[in-house]
Amino acid sequence: MPDIAILGLGNVLIGDDAFGPHVVRRFDAEYEVDPQVEVLDFGTPGFDLAPFLMDAQRVIIVDTVKAEAAPGTICHYDKADILRRPLTRARVNPHDPGLKDTLLLLDLQGAAPAEVHFIGVVPASVKTGIAISDAVRAAVPGAIAAVVESLARMGHPPRRRAVPADPGLWWERTAVVSAEC
Amino acid sequence: MAKRITVDPVTRIEGHLRIDVEVDGGRVRNSWSSGQMWRGIEVILQGKDPRDAWLFTQRICGVCTTVHAIASVRAVEHALRLEIPVNAQYIRNLILIAHSLHDHIVHFYHLSALDWVDITGALQADPKAAARLAETLSPWHRNSWQELQQVKQRLQGVVDSGQLGIFNNGYWGHPAMKLPPEVNLLAVSHYLQALEYQRKANMIVAMLGGKTPNIQNLAVGGVANAVNLDNQSALNMEKIFKINSLFREVEQFVNQVYLPDVIAIGALYPDWLGYGAGVTNYMAVPDLPLDAAATRFDLPGGTIMGGRLETQRSIEVWDDPYFRENVTESVAHAWYEGDWTRHPYEEETVPHYTDFQDRGKYTWIKAPRFDGKPMQVGPLAQVLVGYAQGHEPIRRWTDQSLATASSIAGTRVGLNHLHSTLGRHLARGIRAAVLAESANKHWQMLADNIGSGDFEVYNEPEFPRGEIRGYGVHEAPRGVLSHWAVIKNGKIDNYQCVVPSTWNAGPRDLQGQLGPYEASLVGNPVADAELPLEVLRTVHSFDPCIACAIHTQDVEGEEIATVRTLAAKNI
Lengths: 181, 571
Description:
Helix content of chain B: 40-55%
Strand order of the largest sheet of chain B: 3-2-1-18
Oligomer: heterodimer
Shape of chain A: globular
Strand content of chain B: 15-25%
Strand content of chain A: 15-25%
Largest sheet of chain A: 5 strands, mixed
Mean pLDDT of chain B: 91
C-alpha cells in the first residue's frame, strides 16, 4: 500500500486539460521513486478518486485549475484550501462530484489522506482536441520540479534516472500504419 | 399557471446535463433533456491507428473508461473478423463484471441515495431500534447497534462542524422524504461501508487491468496479461485466488446490503414504483461471452416494445443483423449540421450550435433510434429481456426481490412496477446480484482453462488494404454501448460511439418522439418548484453519465446546481 500517491488528473483529449497526465508521465520517465510512492496518470475519475485517496496517507495532485492568473501560472493549494474554497471557485476537476466532495466523504469515513498538495496550472485552452498550448507546455518543467520538491519535503526524494524512460505520451503520437497504402 | 423549471447542471452525475420541465398543477407536463458539452472524439480519432483507438476512447469519460476500451477493441476485432483466445474473453469478462459491480454500488449509495435518504432524519434514529430492524431485513454482520451508534456520532460531528460538504446538495427535510429515522441511519451506515466494497471491486479491475481507471491490459486481438503460474509479476495462482476472494466479499455486500436496501426503499416509497416509466421500449445486448468465438453468452440481449414482455425478440450475438441494421441516430434537435437520420457508419460530426431552442436544436446529444423508435437501455432493459427469455438467474433474483418488496410494502409489488423510477434502481440491484453470481462461473472457467495448460491470450491482428467496417457492443453498467468503426488502409476513416446515455438522455427526433429521460419526467409530481427533488429522483434513476454522451470543454462550468423557475411563456 503506497504511503504517497502522485496523481495526474485531466483529460488528454481536451487541450490543456492533458497537463496533469503529461506532467506525471514525464516525471515518472525522468525520476525513480521509493517503493512507498505510487505515480498514476489518472484521467478524470470524479468520484472514483475515493479508493485511491483511501489508500494513501499523502497525495500530490497535478491538474489544471481555474484561477485569476495568466495561462501557464502554477498555483499551489493544500487540503485546507481545497476544503475551504466554495465549489464554484476552485475548479479542481470539471466533474461532479469532484476532489472536494471526495475528501469530505472520506473525512466522514475517517479514511481521508492527512496531507494533500495540489499543483494546478491555469489553462489557456480547453477545447476538444489534442494540443497543449505553448504557455502550459512551458509550465511542465516547473510542475515537475514542484513534484520533486514536494516528495523531498515528505522524506522521499526521487532520484533522477541516468537514462530517461519513454514517457508514453501515446495521445500525441501520429498513426503508425501497418497496412500498405 | 404553468411554470418552467431549469435544473442546470444536474448534480451528482458525471458531465454537464441540463433538464427543463414545465410544471402545471403539481405535475410535469413537458420536458427537455440537454447535454451541454460537445464530445468530439469522432473528430480526434480520424486517421488514427485502429490498434490505438481504445486508448483514446477510454479517455472519453473518466468513470466509464473500461467500457469504452472494451467496445473499441471489439469493434476493431469485428471489422477484422478476428477471434480472440478464450482466456482473453474470460479475463475481459471478469474485468467487466467487477467494473459493473463497482459502478452499480457507487451509483446507488454515493450518487443517488440522497434523493431518498434524509441525512438529518438519521440523527433522530435510535441505533438499537435500527439494529433490530436491520436484523429483519438481512443477515449482514455489520448492522450492530454499536456500529450504528458510531455512524450517528460521526454524522452529528459533521453536522455540528457545519462542514456538510458531500451532503450539501441533498434536499434535507423535503416533504417528499418519507423514510423512518432508523432506515435513514441504516442507509447512511451502508453509504459509508459501500466505500470499502466499491474499492474491493475496483481492486479486481486494477489487478487484471494493470491499473484503474484506464486499464492497460487490452489489445486488439486479446489481452496483454502475461499468464505464468510461477511468476510473481504475471497473472499467477496467488492473484487468481485473491481475485476470487475479493469477488466473494463484494458478492456478500451486494446480496446482504445493496439489494436489500434497494428493495426496502422501493417498498417504502411505493408511489415511486408508479412514476417515471417514460419510454417502455427496451433494449439490451448479449454480453459475457462463454467461448472464444462469442457465440454463447451469460447475459441476455433483446428488445421489448411497449412494455409488453411477449414482444421480446432476442439479439442472439453481437453481429445479429436485427441489431446491426436497425440502429440510427437523428440530429434533428441536436447541435449538428442538418436534420438527418443515419446509420452510425454513415454519420458525420459537424457541430452547429444554435442556443437552446425548445422547438429546434437544444442539445449536443444525438437521438439514437432502433427501427425508428426511442429505446430505454440499462439494467432494467436487461432484466426485463432476461425475464421474458426465461433467463434463470434473472428470474430467480427478480421473483425473490419482488416477493420481499411485497412483504415489506404490505401490498403486491409485481413486474409491472419495474417500469418506474424506483424500478430502475431495483433492476440495477438485481443485475448486480446476477453479475456477482456469474463472477464465480467466469472465474472458475478461467482457472480451469489456465490450469489445463492453455496460456494463450492474444491473436495478432493484420490490417488489409481497402475499407473494412465493424462494430463492438458491450452491455455497460448504463446499458447498450456500441462503437462503429470504418477503417481504410489500416487507418480510422470514421468512428461513432453510440453510448447508453445517448439512448436515454437524447432529445426528440424528427418525428417529435421524446427521449427516455424526457418521457420519464412527464407526469412526475413536483411538490415545490424551487426544490424539484422529484425531477432529480427520476433523472438519477437512469444513472446519468453524460461525459461520454458529450464531452467537457467547459472547464469554467458552474459546479453548484442552479434551479431557475420561470413562468412558462410558450405553453
